[in-house]
Design a protein that fits this description.
Length: 471
């Protein structure tokens, strides 16, 4: 069979761009297909606009602390049009990194149209048939919308239209207490909206409960209201919406549905060519291969963790496998994620609960608070802690809550994967005063019982006695 390309990549988000760019840089003929905006969800509807909004909200929060460190500021004047412009300026500044032009310069042939997989080695794009021995599906995810009575007839927001709001909500009602719900709750509250979060389960349920408790306390202190309950019914019109739980009716101006993501994997002809689907996405093996030979699925469209850095990681793995023939299995043992509330919540590897479920009594936990970190005290930003989950001296996971917590994850990625050790970290020279000193402190705490145990103490005391006798 004569092929038009070496590989066809469907999807221009983090996963697809990494795979396509990697293959093109190795000199392969790559077809990159994207019908919507280049950059995918992260650039246009997710990470970038949300972090831009959080940055604006943080500036408002700092001004709201009218007196701090002996310095008095004026209360903030929030102009939503300016906030909106900042969000879209951030998107525009990053967009060239993901642009059609950039990937054409790398060597990709970019198609801005819908793709239909017609066989294990063929894809129809517009009126053209593309063929290649390898196809990579990277079609991403979309907002998961729960079956709430009346929702279809009521205006509501998801992350896909939230950042196009032309007014600041008077009262934002959020269904979902996960990452998106919690980040947006704090951001809009800081900008001046009243905010109510409705969640039937645990807030930020995949994170360590001790970390979540710190964030909840801060958000409640800032005025965010939490309602534990299931959203049963919604009614109203633009600007006047009422959400009903089993126990109360909550009225607000805007409704945000933040109940997670679901794979965007239907409508591309995949099931017709035999690609197996799971509960929430395409079924893949550890090498991201689907049930059809030669077809891979990476990023949010497959069943598994949905994070931008995971998409990039999988894109790199698949690019290496396709270009160099090197089998590349995913390894989630040191998977990191962050929630960018203030304070941030950062996690890598296993939480304490996950570790105890797998290893039982073999698990130990050491903990250091930022209240004992001198940079944190100097900045009056000492809320939070670092928790290290260990089996013996091996790190299984780290849970951090505090200012810029995500910046402290890197050394534990090295420890979990065996490229470093708690002893090496605990004995490292760390610049003073920095927040990262807490990493050294918690790592040393794991070794403290050994370093100052019976045998070292006996030896130190013996040497001391010998010195006195010989002096």
């Amino acid at each position: 069979m004569k092929f038009t390309h070496d590989v066809i990549v469907i999807g221009g988000g983090a996963a697809g761009l990494t795979a396509a760019g990697g293959c093109a840089l190795f000199g392969l003929d790559v077809a990159l297909v994207e019908a919507r905006k280049m950059g995918g969800e992260c650039l246009n509807d997710g990470c970038v606009p949300s972090k831009a909004l959080i940055a604006a909200a943080k500036r408002a929060a700092e001004a709201n602390e009218t007196e701090r460190f002996g310095i008095t500021l004026s209360p903030p004047q929030v102009e939503w049009a300016g906030v909106h412009k900042h969000i879209h300026d951030a998107i525009a500044a990053i967009a060239p990194h993901d642009s059609e032009e950039r990937f054409e310069e790398m060597g990709c042939e970019v198609f801005r149209d819908w793709a239909q997989v017609t066989g294990p080695q063929s894809v129809e794009v517009g009126w053209r048939t593309l063929t290649a021995p390898r196809i990579v599906i990277a079609t991403g995810s979309k907002a998961a919308v729960p079956p709430i009575d009346g929702l279809a007839d009521t205006p509501y927001l998801t992350n896909e239209n939230l950042f196009d709001l032309d007014v600041l909500p008077d009262h934002l009602v959020i269904v979902g207490g996960g990452v998106i719900g919690m980040e947006m709750a704090q951001a809009f509250r800081r900008l001046g909206s009243a905010v109510t979060v409705v969640e039937p389960g645990e807030l930020m349920g995949r994170d360590d409960p001790d970390s979540v408790a710190v964030v909840r306390e801060v958000l409640e202190g800032e005025g965010v209201r939490f309602v534990k309950g299931l959203a049963r019914k919604v009614e109203g019109s633009a600007g006047a919406i009422t959400l009903h739980t089993d126990d109360e009716a909550i009225s607000g101006s805007h409704l945000l549905i933040a109940t997670g993501r679901k794979a965007n994997c239907t409508g591309f002809g995949l099931e017709e060519v035999g690609v197996e689907m799971g509960r929430n996405g395409i079924v893949v093996d550890d090498r991201r291969r689907t049930s059809v030979k030669g077809i891979y699925a990476i990023g949010d469209c497959r069943d598994g963790p949905r994070l931008t850095h995971v998409s990039g990681y999988e894109g790199s793995n698949v690019a290496l496998e396709i270009t160099l023939g090197l089998p590349a299995k995913v390894d989630w043992s040191a998977l990191p994620w962050c929630t960018y509330t203030d304070p941030e919540v950062a996690q890598i590897g296993m939480t304490e609960a996950e570790a105890r479920e797998k290893h039982g009594d073999k698990v130990t936990v050491v903990k250091e608070t930022f209240h004992d970190n001198e940079r944190s005290l100097a900045e009056s930003a000492d809320k939070g802690h670092m928790k290290l989950v260990l089996k013996g001296k091996k790190v299984l996971g780290a849970s951090i809550v505090g200012k810029n917590a995500g910046e402290l994850l890197l050394p534990f990625a090295q420890s979990i994967t065996g490229k470093s050790s708690t002893f090496a970290l605990g004995s490292a020279i760390i610049a003073y005063p920095t927040r990262s000193e807490i990493s050294k402190a918690v790592a040393f705490k794991a070794w403290e019982p050994t370093v100052f145990g019976k045998v070292p103490k006996w030896w130190a005391q013996t040497l001391a006695k010998l010195r006195r006798k010989l002096s």
